[in-house]
Fold this sequence. Notes:
The complex is a heterotrimer of chains A (230), B (212) and C (245).
Chain A: H1 19-23, H2 26-60, H3 63-77, H4 81-91, H5 101-126, H6 130-138, H7 143-173, H8 185-196, H9 199-229
Chain B: H1 6-43, H2 47-61, H3 65-78, H4 85-111, H5 114-122, H6 127-158, H7 169-180, H8 183-211
Helix pairs in contact in B: 1-2, 1-4, 1-6, 1-7, 1-8, 2-4, 3-4, 4-6, 5-6, 6-8, 7-8
Chain C: E1 6-15, E2 18-28, E3 33-38, H1 44-51, E4 59-64, E5 67-68, H2 74-83, E6 84-87, H3 99-110, H4 115-128, H5 144-156, E7 162-166, H6 174-189, E8 193-197, H7 201-207, E9 210-215, E10 218-223, H8 225-230, H9 235-243
Parallel strand pairs in C: 3-8, 3-9, 6-7, 7-8
Antiparallel strand pairs in C: 1-2, 1-4, 4-5, 9-10
Helix pairs in contact in C: 3-4, 3-5, 4-5, 5-6
Amino acid sequence: MIFRNDSPRLTPVRITFDFLAVLSQWPLLVKGVAWTLGLTAVSAVVGVALGIACAWARSQGGKGLRVAAGVYVELIRNTPFIVQLFFIFFGLPALGIKLSPEVASVLAMVINLGAYATEIIRAGINATPRGQVEAALSLALTRAQVFMRVMLPPALRKVWPALVSQIIIVMLGSAVCGQISTEELSYAANLIQSRNFRSFEAFTIATAIYLALAVAVRRLLNWLGPRFLF
Amino acid sequence: MVDFTFWDIARNLLLAVRWTIALSLIAFIGGGVVGLVLLVARITKSHAARRFVAAYVQLFQGTPLLMQLFLAYFGIALLGVNTSPWVSAAVALTLYTSAFLAEIWRGCVDAVPKGQWEAAQSLALNFGEQLRYVILPQAARIAIAPTVGFLVQVIKGTALASVIGFVELTKAGAMITNATFRPFLVYGCVALLYFALCFPISLYARRLERTL
Amino acid sequence: MTNPIIEIQGLRKSFGTNEVLKGIDLQVRSGEVIAIIGKSGSGKSTLLRCINGLETFQHGSLAVDGKHLVHDNPAAMRELRQHVGMIFQSFNLFPHLTVGRNVMLAPTLVKKASADETAALARKLLERVGLAEKFDAMPDQLSGGQQQRVAIARALAMQPAVLLCDEITSALDPELVGEVLRVVESLAHDGMTLLMVTHEMNFARKVSDRVIFMHQGRVHEMGDPEQLFGAPQTAELKQFLSSLD
């Protein structure tokens, strides 16, 4: 097989834009935004939980758990999300595990966020002064209680901005899920431009919406964190 | 149906890795040059320049790389220029990299103590001399580890270029999967190849962070 | 005073809503050694930093060698800083350059002297501060007192008319203070115009021609050392001096 990368494309020069043609399809865009936010919300909750669990495994667990968590983290952080997604959606069926596009997307996002969250939370935990842990142990708290009540809350408070940033990164990365027909925002944009050929306008509007979502979700999470988590 | 051996698959994937590496290097070096210009613009006294760079960074950090690739692909075509996926991907990734590097490097410049600026100013150095002889050498030392670390992000970013048709490792994987019907094996190998590229670099960046 | 080297009239400076300098009038003769003392927050360092333009001011005028300060003119500021040097409390040596290169950097770039000339000048100045053998050492290999002496040599390399010393011994271990003060004393004897913000009262008493006591952003008392330390006039100065013992 020979791969070539120089396929030419001839298009007439267009100087008129028609954003209305895209905006008139707003129901599709709204559906896309809903899916994007939905995917992100589920992934954020489960992904951070997974991150907490693996952070515990890496810092407090036995040798086997520590290694397993380490392998998981390094594997995910050193491979592209799109490859992880394709592996789950296209590759797992060969093992008999057939997933719908939506489930595959969530699964990939959770696994992806979990790995990054593990490292972020672990850094926060390591920054907890040793004295606090020793004081808690001296008060006869179990190791699990020490982790959940003494080490985790200040760690989360400290790393919340980094965690929020990572959730935003995963949300922006979810644009790729449209490639396996998950009906999120980039899929909606692709659908619209395939009907009216306004590709530049469609993707510009989608990009602007993503930017607005990124700003809004960041604000929301910064408000949510201190109120409910720590 | 032709039966493909593992070696057939591996060989074709390895050939495609060249394109991944090529695109990564172009984006990284090109992005570095543009990023440096943006960095200097960000720390000048001009309010307009600072606001522009801040908006530029916000734009590239707040939108999906996939969208940036699509916009480059369709946008350049609008200007009547014949775009190949190769050119669009190179342009999009270069700009993407420049935004992130400019922001990383700005953090490194901010990490240089204010007293260094004051000492340099008190010795009557002009702004360019302050940057070149006092501030940037110190910032560069701080910047090496995170910059090397970002190279990993660039390599992973090239995988998205497959969506606009650029044939690098991921696209090769998709094409080979379609030919061999062995997605688990093929995408598994693709993942391992990315890992082989990225993991050593990640380790190196971590080591740099410890020593410097 | 005929042709004072520094002339300050009605200087007022605020940080936001907080007025730190409430109207300073001061004239400094060439060759004069002035010690500025006072509580923290009285505006001493701010006044010093106004003189070389590291801080801007809102009202009043400040002239060095007859030229008024123009903050938004970078060329004028650089011109000013060739005549006014500063030594900082935290030394601020450039960590990535050797001691010799620290001293040589500014003359090479600003005065465009040749490498040989500047190297010779640097060696001479380092010898003057007692550190000739440290020419090729890196700053982090030196003690605090040695670093501060290099900082003095670095400032002198620009051959300034005035040297501003902003609490230059405050960050030093006590046993290292003396070596720095000895260098400053020798500068005073050689006729350098010095403005020092300092807590070293004995040193100020011995070396300075005039002492200024600042309180809440104003020059509260001013006079020669014997008068100020021996017979303080105002209650605030009396209280300040007694609090030091």
